Hints:
Oligomer: single chain
Structural class: mainly beta
Largest sheet: 7 strands, mixed
Radius of gyration: 13 Å
Shape: globular
Order of helices and strands: EEEEEEEEEEE
Distance between the termini: 40 Å
Number of strands: 11
Strand content: over 45%
Amino acid sequence: QVQLVESGGGLVQAGGSLRLSCAASGRAASTSNMGWFRQAPGKEREFVAAIAWSGGRTYYEDSVKGRFTISRDNVQNMVYLRMNSLKPENTAVYYCAADVRGGVFHTQVGAYDFWGQGTQVTVSS
């Protein structure tokens, strides 16, 4: 079991930055691959970024490469998503998710076992 709680969302102007945090707890928290997803109104939930349990490997959706950075602190059981140069189209609810199997990165929603409640990010133009 892994429990996830996101925070750090808010309202920001285009070009601004935000850092999302995800507090993870549970036996598998430090050995799971972790991902960030987002869901805009009327759209399906989509993959944003993932990080291996060790923190040594990361993977990004193409549109966020160079602007977003995923990181983790396994001592504090925290996962972060630093978002720079935000655009209005980045407006969405952002979710943290855990894949307890680890190994190969997955971008599909169904591959992740546990989810947080989400945090709203709104980027104004």
